[in-house]
Design goal:
Blueprint: E1 2-7, E2 28-33, E3 38-42, H1 47-57, E4 66-70, E5 94-99, H2 108-113, E6 131-136, E7 140-143, E8 149-154, E9 162-168, E10 171-176, H3 197-218, E11 223-227, H4 232-239, H5 247-257, E12 261-265, H6 273-283, E13 293-296, E14 302-304
Parallel strand pairs: 3-4, 4-5, 5-6, 10-11, 11-12, 12-13
Antiparallel strand pairs: 1-2, 1-14, 2-3, 7-8, 8-9, 9-10
Length: 309
């Protein structure tokens, strides 16, 4: 399994001189099974445009593109690249889009394809040349054929959001973004008239159980790509409930779960390359660190899960 990062930034694309080294595109990952000549795409942020352009010279030169796109959720930074993905305009392309749908009256096709209406875009979904199928996913385990299996886990985000665990020939890639630690949603202040001790204890137990389920989901992964948008100070000051994790939480969870490598991902769009370097000096692993290899994801980085190179 090989993974390439085409977009690592959260919320909104942020090109410019201060984001050159880490990149300014929103989430998109390329997963390759080289021995099967198989491509899987994870998320359709603005990085999908560059991936599509690269496919024109590689895969499409060998024939029509047949691939699968897994969306973690439908927030705009994870789907905005879809209308600019060139293969959907090429006859013969077959694309299956998997993902969660939040509202019962709006299908995945309505949400993702809904960007392709004259209100937002000059081309309609009905005008696309590709054969596109949409598949709704829930928590579960799915056989994708040829030995590739994906498991899914609901994460903690303001909209229904899935983590993915891809397994192939003894190697495992996990994604856990966009998410933040589950917390007790009930009143925990004994001085508050709304406080109920039994309910507060039940809320604490439920949050702890769900956090343990998330860590069990990515336990032992060869590569974990984890939400790390905020510093601890930013998170505690004003970002609780926004659906993103502080960096130190991502590092601690990965260590507890025994992952092999951790890519800190979904960078805050206001954070510059120099500021990310400063955070890397705090959180990234050193040569003598006995724990997982920890690094901040950069656009263009490619990792072979078998060798780590």
């Amino acid at each position: 399994m090989r993974v390439r990062f085409w977009g690592v930034r959260g919320s909104i694309p942020c090109p410019g001189p201060t984001t050159v080294r880490y990149g300014g595109n929103t989430p998109c990952l390329e997963l390759r099974l080289p021995d099967r000549d198989r491509l899987v795409i994870i998320d359709a942020g603005s990085g999908l445009r560059e991936l599509g352009n690269a496919l024109l010279g590689r895969d499409l030169a060998r024939g029509p593109l047949v691939t699968q796109l897994f969306l973690t959720h439908t927030h705009w930074d994870h789907i905005m690249g879809f209308p600019f993905f060139v293969p959907i305009y090429i006859p013969g392309t077959r694309l299956t889009v998997y993902g969660p749908a939040t509202y019962e009256d709006e299908s995945l096709a309505d949400i993702v394809g809904g960007q392709l209406t004259y209100r937002y875009f000059p081309v309609r979904q009905t005008d696309l040349a590709a054969n596109i199928q949409y598949v709704h996913l829930r928590e579960g385990r799915y056989d994708l054929g040829e030995g590739l299996v994906v498991s899914t886990k609901y994460l903690n985000h303001p909209v229904l959001c899935l983590g993915y665990r891809f397994e192939y020939r003894g190697l495992t890639l996990c994604t856990a973004y966009d998410t933040e630690p589950f917390a007790n949603v009930f009143c925990t202040d004994p001085g508050d008239p709304a406080f109920d001790e039994a309910i507060a204890e039940e809320g604490a137990r439920a949050a702890a159980e769900e956090n343990a389920r998330v860590e069990a989901f990515f336990a032992g992964a060869d590569l974990l790509i984890y939400d790390a948008q905020y510093t601890r100070e930013e998170y505690q000051a004003s970002k609780r409930g926004w659906g993103h994790s502080p960096m130190d939480h991502a590092v601690a969870a990965a260590r507890r779960a025994g992952v092999r490598r951790l890519a800190l991902f979904h960078h805050e769009p206001l954070r510059t390359d120099d500021q990310l370097d400063a955070q890397a000096a705090i959180h990234a692993s050193g040569p003598d660190d006995p724990g997982p290899e920890i690094f901040f994801a950069r656009e263009g980085t490619e990792i072979d899960l078998a060798t780590g190179s």
